[in-house]
Design brief:
- By secondary structure, the protein is an alpha/beta fold.
- Helices cover 43% and strands 15% of the residues.
- It has nine helices and six strands.
- Strands 1, 2, 3, 4, 5 and 6 form a six-stranded mixed sheet that branches.
- Helix 2 packs across helix 3 and helix 5 (162-176) runs parallel beside helix 6 (191-199).
């Protein structure tokens, strides 16, 4: 890394030691047609993406001691589209599970959704209004494991039902983590999700909130994914929906934890 003063969002040396070799191998497989090696270190590109995720700044407002939008967005979009961001996320999740004494891949997940208001530049065609929560924007669906690690992310218009998002989440869980056989959901996920889960070998169980106790009461199983939604709010780029493409928002969500 350059001699600049570090930002709190920067990768530590230990973190870079984990993902640095992977990105170096990726770079070696994707040489520039012109032979140009790039002006900016990949570590600084990742630092710029992390900085923007955490602070929520616009592309043009990236600090001058970090790579500019032209370089940062190039890699952000490239890694989003070729799946590099997802691959790194999955590798890190597997390592975290192994350190916790778990198998690399989970057998159970928890599903939930969160509606987020959209900024005024976000295309209307990809947004809607959550009729229940009266939130105009997009809806973020998560599937997390027993450690609160993200397994799948789906971002759709806020007008999409939990059933629609739940079905897509299960499809992604099955595609990337076929070891999952159990999923817990709240009452917003109806029969369609349970039927779709059964067809794919996943037992979907509703965990309903108790009305017998006053005040805040963590709901068994569901508190895991609700805690992750709360943690995402620490990343200001995710507090409001700023991304033009839902795929960019999904990528941002995977980067955040």
């Amino acid at each position: 890394m350059s001699g600049r003063k570090a930002y709190p969002s920067d990768l530590t040396d230990e973190q870079w030691a984990v993902i640095g070799p992977f990105l170096a191998a990726w770079k070696a497989k994707h040489p520039s047609v012109s032979g140009h090696q790039g002006r900016y270190e990949l570590r600084e590109i990742v630092n710029a993406i992390f900085y923007q995720n955490r602070t929520g700044c616009q592309w043009a407002y990236l600090p001058h001691d970090l790579p500019p939008k032209s370089a940062t967005y190039y890699y952000f979009a490239l890694w989003r589209d070729d799946g590099t961001d997802q691959t790194i996320h999955d590798l890190l999740r597997c390592q975290a599970r192994e350190r916790a004494g778990r198998a690399e891949d989970p057998t159970a997940v928890v599903l939930d959704t969160q509606s987020v208001r959209a900024a005024n530049h976000v295309p209307a065609v990809t947004t809607g209004k959550d009729a229940a929560k009266r939130v105009p924007g997009r809806k973020r669906g998560l599937a997390v494991d027993a450690l609160g690690l993200i397994i799948a992310v789906v971002v759709m218009a806020a007008s999409a039902t939990d059933n629609q998002i739940g079905v897509r989440l299960l499809d992604r869980v099955v595609a990337h983590t076929p070891t999952v056989t159990k999923a817990w959901v709240d009452a917003g996920f109806k029969d369609d999700v349970q039927i779709h889960g059964a067809v794919n070998g996943i037992d979907v169980e509703q965990v309903k909130r108790s009305d017998t106790r006053a005040g805040f009461v963590p709901v068994a199983k569901r508190w895991l994914v609700e805690q992750v939604h709360g943690t995402l709010m620490l990343h200001r780029r995710l507090v409001r929906e700023y991304e033009i493409r839902p795929a960019s928002s999904e990528s941002r969500t995977g980067v955040a934890p």
